[in-house]
Design brief:
about 750 residues, alpha/beta, Rossmann fold, seven-stranded mixed sheet, two-stranded antiparallel sheet, 32 helices
């Protein structure tokens, strides 16, 4: 069997590197982190001609090997460490046809490391549209490599690229430039110290202050030392030397007719980045997205919700009665069902975000928002992590590594958790559905408007917090912002599909593991107790019902059910045919009422047992703390467990409400039927619902985010500040909202 070829995809941001990675690997890819570091690592398997196989690594985007951020440093360290298990047999440098000159700077650096290097020129379909004339054969000779012209949009050039990868042994590993020209005397001393070492590899390690495994164990003291000023001067000379080579290579091989190149892009840029219309347009796009999340996802969500309820009921009906059946039906199925119901909404959110990124519009948003960021001590670079925080705070915190200034980066890390991530979405969606009317104004849904306001509220709080931190933190904060505007392009549905699948799967699996574990623990705590009240629940509740009757909630539930049944008899031909005649109707109503009373009795016994279970006592213990916010002990338990992850809130309530419940109700209906301590009003009303939504808008309810913040700041100080401040602030806001609205 042929050995798998290790291939590193390297390139500037916005060159289509990820699109090519998707084309090569398809679904045979996985996402993780580099060992000991939280930079995202993508890898996948690609089948090549002649039954060969390539292991593809999609490295973080970088403009050069002269690193300014942690992402760029990951690339440089990998290419310098020949003992790394991921050290590539072949480097594939991805460029794009419009910015070829700038992209080639990175190509010359990689090739000078003596790694076999292949050049890919992406977006080849734009060559005639942009008035570009490209002589590929001549350019291959100038660069001493092979070139693959690729268009991921048209799907062209991928087969040729695979053939070049399979035959990488034929590629030259010679350098493009003679690095010693920038300082002959200095490099002569380096050569004497390490005669067998690649001079550019050695120079890069010295310039970037990286460790370097060498064949000769020469101590660092024996190497010539450069001052910081001299180092920067030599790096500047290197840049000049490389661009001299690039200009010479492109002089006759790459020509542009600028009259043809001018097009509609300038008009679009002027509109999308306009200081007034740009913000209005962005606001309208956001509103459309949230409207679609509610409208489009309601049908699959309702279907999933109903299916999990049926599965739970089927298990109870067909499996032998016992602890295992109860665990499966009431713990596992209910807990997982509580999060699965939100898969459509989350998938739609990632779908729209991916469309905006693929089209090139998101870069305009970053540029546009830079104007808002500057007064708060941030720049447009902070917008990328803040916007990516709408998916998940963890990769958003990692994305701050592209921010060179430490103060700006620290402020961005600290405020990111205020942005509404996808884990909050299940909480918002179910609470909005319960307490916000399903009406509209001017064709805009109240529920969609509420969701958008929650997103804007989180973003606004992040900006306000940044302003406060900018004044509190006494650090140098010189912020410069440079943004590259990629071409507008129609999103590739294949890439969008990969993104939605990967992100949704990551969310569901990540949340599912936590929810499954907590669901089992909560089921045990809710199904067991130590008190006499728990053990004698059936006797106590039966005696109370005989003396006082069913609770107001049960009576109201039975009445509504019978009223609906009688209405159907008069309106539904099927029910009218089944029950005809006054006496038959009375008998049918009597039987149905008796069955409903039995079900209500069982539910009241289950609720009494839950209240006196281990979980009930724990909830009662924290109830004094959450009661002023409008929550009962059950919501208190859900809030407490959701410190593991925000989305656990819904899964916890699904488990709590289904413990001992024989009725096949959906979680939404069960929550809608919960009454407050008076037994007359819904527990989830406008006041308590708004209070809960505001609490989750501001609270730090994610242990994983705290761990990543600790990792990124190398201190427990900042995550603890986040946790204490955000929790206290969320509590005060939720308390104020409930007391004003109740």
């Amino acid at each position: 069997m042929n050995k798998s070829i290790r291939v590193a995809l390297i390139g500037n941001p916005n060159t289509g590197k990820t699109s090519i990675f998707n084309q090569l690997t398809g679904l045979k890819q996985k996402v993780g982190n580099y060992p000991g570091i939280t930079v995202e690592k993508k890898e996948g398997i690609c089948k090549l001609p002649n039954r060969a196989k390539a292991h593809i690594f999609d490295l973080p985007g970088t403009y050069s090997l002269n690193t300014n951020s942690l992402d760029e440093r990951v690339v440089a360290e990998l290419l310098l460490d020949q003992k790394d298990g991921d050290y590539p047999d072949l480097a594939v440098v991805i460029t794009e046809v419009e910015n070829l000159k700038r992209n080639l700077f990175l190509f010359t650096q990689v090739k000078d490391l003596r790694i076999p290097t292949l050049l890919v020129i992406n977006m080849a379909d734009l060559i005639p549209k942009k008035g570009i004339s490209l002589n590929v054969d001549a350019l291959e000779k100038k660069l001493d490599t092979k070139i693959a012209l690729v268009s991921t949009r048209k799907g062209s050039g991928i087969l040729h690229l695979k053939e070049l990868i399979a035959n990488y042994h034929n590629l030259s590993a010679g350098p493009t430039t003679v690095i010693s020209k920038i300082a002959p005397e200095y490099f002569s001393k380096l050569k004497q110290a390490l005669p067998t070492e690649n001079l550019y590899r050695l120079w890069l390690a010295i310039a970037q202050k990286m460790s370097l495994e060498t064949k000769n164990a020469i101590p660092p003291a024996s190497l010539p030392i450069l001052s910081h000023k001299d180092l920067k001067q030599l790096q500047h000379r290197e840049t000049v030397l490389r661009y001299q080579f690039i200009n010479n290579a492109l002089k006759e091989t790459y020509l542009v007719d600028f009259k043809t190149a001018k097009g509609f892009r300038a008009v679009l840029d002027k509109t999308f980045t306009h200081k007034v219309f740009g913000y209005i347009l962005f606001f309208m796009i956001l509103l459309t997205i949230f409207q679609a999340i509610f409208d489009w996802s309601s049908y699959p969500s309702d279907f999933i919700d109903a299916q999990f309820s049926e599965i739970s009921g089927w298990i109870k009906s067909n499996f032998p009665a016992g602890i295992l059946t109860d665990l499966l039906a009431e713990g596992v199925i209910s807990g997982i069902g509580g999060i699965a119901v939100f898969i459509p909404q989350i998938a739609f959110l990632f779908f729209f975000i991916s469309l905006l990124e693929e089209s090139g519009y998101m870069s305009r948003v970053v540029f546009l928002m830079d104007r808002l960021m500057r007064p708060f001590g941030l720049s447009g670079k902070s917008v990328v992590p803040l916007i990516s925080g709408t998916a998940c705070a963890i990769p958003a915190v990692m994305a701050t590594r592209t921010i060179e200034n430490w103060k700006e980066r620290l402020i961005t890390i600290l405020v990111i958790p205020f942005t509404t991530c996808s884990a909050r979405l299940p909480v918002y969606l179910i609470l909005i559905a319960l307490v916000i009317p399903d009406d509209s104004i001017l064709g805009l849904s109240y529920q969609a408007l509420t969701l958008m306001l929650l997103y804007l509220l989180g973003f606004g709080m992040a900006i306000f917090s940044a302003m406060v931190l900018n004044r509190i933190l006494k650090m140098e904060n010189r912020v410069f912002f440079i943004a590259e505007m990629p071409n507008y392009r129609l999103p590739l549905l294949k890439n969008v599909g990969y993104t939605v699948l990967e992100k949704t799967k990551s969310f569901v699996i990540g949340a599912g593991k936590i929810i499954l574990a907590l669901a089992i623990i909560l089921w045990f705590l809710g199904s067991n107790g130590f008190s006499k009240n728990f053990r004698n629940a059936e006797t106590i509740v039966s005696e109370r019902i005989e003396k006082q009757g069913l609770t107001p909630y049960s009576k109201n539930y039975i009445k509504n059910n019978i009223d609906l049944y009688l209405k159907n008899i008069h309106t539904s031909p099927t029910d009218r045919d089944q029950v005809s005649g006054k006496r038959a109707i009375q008998d049918s109503v009597r039987i149905r009422t008796r069955n409903l009373e039995e079900n209500a009795k069982r539910q009241e016994i289950a609720s009494y047992k839950l209240e006196h279970s281990y979980m009930g006592y724990a909830g009662k213990g924290i109830e004094p703390l959450v009661k002023p916010l409008g929550y009962d002990w059950k919501i208190g338990i859900a809030v407490l467990t959701s410190f593991a992850a925000r989305e656990v809130f819904v899964g916890t309530l699904a488990t709590i409400y289904s413990v001992g419940n024989d009725q096949e109700e959906t979680i939404k209906n069960r929550m809608a039927g919960e009454l407050d301590e008076s037994g007359e009003k819904p527990l989830f009303n406008l006041a308590s619902g708004i209070s809960l939504m505001l609490f989750y808008a501001f609270a730090m309810q994610c242990m994983s985010t705290l761990a990543v913040v600790k990792k990124e700041t190398n201190s427990w100080r900042w995550p603890l500040v986040q946790l204490l401040f955000m929790s206290a602030f969320a509590y005060l806001v939720a308390l104020t909202a409930f007391q004003l609205l109740k």
